[in-house]
Design brief:
It contains four helices and eight strands. With 177 residues, the protein is an alpha/beta fold.
């Protein structure tokens, strides 16, 4: 199969509490956020590992929360590559990210990274992600991000951890716009 014919998509992952114990080491929860700080829009992407109980984050300026969600996936893939993971189970609260990984990427690649004749949004990021998906097994699960505590599962608790890691801290509010 040529690289043009390779399937660029992720499989659907089981819920975290249904994931086999030997695969939980490959589970990463991702989140992104955006906030106006002073006159600047700041974004933050975060990844949480439930087994290692550690978060990793990246930050920048000038982009949206959707951009941060995509950067979080890219960060998770970078971590998996650094750790030489044979597979990866991603848990995201973003339907846009989940749908892109489940199939939109394949359609975009076949359409030369265009949709309706126009370049796709954040095309370079998506191309980087698509190239990574051709390597090991990647599974994705959408997590309902905000549920009442009485309904929260271990999956939701882990999602809450990555949500906290993705929050943009504001040390000082600039009221002189």
């Amino acid at each position: 199969m040529s690289s043009e014919e390779e399937v660029t998509h992720a499989e659907e992952a089981p819920l975290y509490n249904k994931l086999p114990e030997d695969e939980k080491q490959y589970a990463l929860f991702t989140d992104g956020s955006c906030r106006i700080v002073g006159k600047h829009r700041r974004w933050k992407a975060a990844v949480w590992s439930p087994t290692q109980r550690v978060a990793e984050a990246a930050e920048g300026e000038g982009e949206s929360s959707q951009f941060a969600e995509v950067k979080a996936i890219q960060l998770a893939l970078d971590i998996a590559e650094r750790e030489k993971c044979l597979m990866l189970c991603l848990y995201t609260g973003s339907w846009m990210v989940a749908n892109a990984l489940w199939g939109w990427l394949q359609q975009w690649k076949q359409s030369n990274w265009q949709r309706r004749g126009k370049p796709i949004w954040a095309g370079e990021l998506w191309q980087d992600i698509a190239a990574w998906l051709e390597k090991p097994i990647v599974k994705v699960c959408h997590v309902d991000a905000h549920v009442p505590k009485r309904w929260a599962t271990e999956e939701h608790q882990n999602n809450q951890q990555v949500d906290q890691a993705a929050k943009i801290e504001v040390a000082q509010v600039d009221l002189h716009w």
